[in-house]
Design a protein that fits this description.
By secondary structure, the chain is an alpha/beta fold. 32% of the residues lie in helices and 15% in strands. Strands 1, 2, 3, 4, 5, 6, 7, 8, 9 and 10 form a 10-stranded mixed β-sheet that branches. The protein is globular, with a radius of gyration of 18 Å. Bound molecules: zinc ion.
Length: 351
């Protein structure tokens, strides 16, 4: 059931612009009025339903070598599927939510990710406001024993609001970018550090999936080994403000110089560096002391509206942002720096 208008108003500040005390690397996008963060007194998360989810069928065709990962047309195809009228906005617990998760599990499988959900599947089930849904979790193992214990989490929420709101930008775009990064890393060969790909559910109802994950991490992904969280939420509306933000990039954190170097290498992208975005899925991880980079593009007209559709997707910049985020994951995975020590020292705030 979609949230009431009143409930929506409480949730909406989700991607909060207040956060953007950013210092754009180039032309500063126009200032955004501060918005108070949402009250975070979320309801307790119910335990997973007792009935186990169906185990994923084995043997899927390999799709990892199926084209260039960051090809904008391929990204657009993924968004088109997730934001189709048939899936009706993927509201938690709806048939469209289930269909979207089935599609994503199929992509995870054919990209060769190792399931890290329950019972050998990708799914980590939980209840979102009483509705059964799930996070989807797949792993690309690292191959360096010295750094292989470190985990870099790449996350994007798969749910949206439903009721005619299809959520192409929010957040089919982030999920498409996540799939592209998984494909690119698979093509590249084993990363040095382990990469965990997580499509979170229940985000629109109050970060329920990421909070559930942080409270119940899978055995293979203990929180104390997660050294970075790369969060992709709304990365398909670059044209709205002519900028993408990379928040969480505070002084002294290992990803910050990498993001700055990448911004210099991608002069066509205006990248806002710094600022702390609240109200998205990096939040529970930051609270656990895990540093993050939160990629986000403002959407001034269609945020949580019915006009957030495929037709408005900024496909070309979605490809560029996905490639940028993917290269950040590669460089973080390969860095000789001690990410675990940095996390212990600086947490997510870069003290
Ligand atoms: Zn979102």
């Amino acid at each position: 059931m979609p949230p009431s208008q009143a409930a929506l108003r409480r949730i909406v500040p989700a991607i909060v612009l207040a956060a953007i005390a950013a210092s754009p690397s180039r032309a500063a996008p126009p200032a955004v009025p501060p918005v108070a963060p949402p009250p975070i007194a979320p309801p307790p998360i119910a335990p997973p339903p007792i009935a186990p989810p169906p185990i994923a069928p084995p043997a899927a065709p390999d799709c990892a070598d199926d084209g260039a990962p960051y090809d904008p047309a391929a990204l657009r195809d993924r968004v088109a599927h997730l934001a189709s009228a048939e899936l009706d906005g993927r509201a938690s617990g709806s048939p469209g939510d289930a269909a979207g998760r089935t599609y994503l599990a199929g992509r995870f499988r054919c990209l060769g990710l190792i399931p890290a959900g329950v019972d050998g599947s990708y799914a980590q089930p939980f209840l979102a406001d009483g509705q059964p849904t799930a996070n989807l979790i797949g792993i690309l193992p690292g191959d360096d024993a010295a750094a292989g214990g470190d985990i870099i989490l790449v996350g994007a929420h798969h749910d949206h609001l439903g009721n005619g709101r299809l959520g192409a930008n929010d957040n089919a775009s982030g999920v498409a970018a996540l799939l592209a990064i998984a494909q690119a890393l698979h093509q590249r060969g084993k990363p040095r550090r382990t990469i965990a790909f997580v499509a979170f559910g229940g985000e629109e109802l109050g970060l329920l999936g990421s909070r559930y994950f942080a409270g119940h991490p899978p055995a293979a992904l203990p929180l104390d080994r997660i050294v970075y969280d790369i969060n992709l939420d709304m990365v398909g509306s670059y044209a709205s403000a002519g900028a993408v933000y990379a928040m969480g990039t505070f002084r002294g954190l290992p990803a910050t110089p990498i993001v700055k170097a990448l911004a210099a290498e991608h002069p066509a992208l205006h990248v806002g560096i710094g600022g702390r975005g609240v109200g998205s899925d990096h939040d529970p991880f930051c609270r656990a002391g895990i540093p993050y980079v939160f990629f986000w593009t403002p959407d001034r007209r269609c945020y949580h509206e019915r006009c957030d559709t495929l037709e408005r997707l900024d496909t070309a910049h979605l490809g560029a942002i996905a490639a940028f985020a993917g290269e950040l994951v590669v460089r973080l995975s390969d860095t000789p720096g001690d990410l675990a020590a940095s996390r212990r020292r600086s947490g997510c705030t870069g003290r």
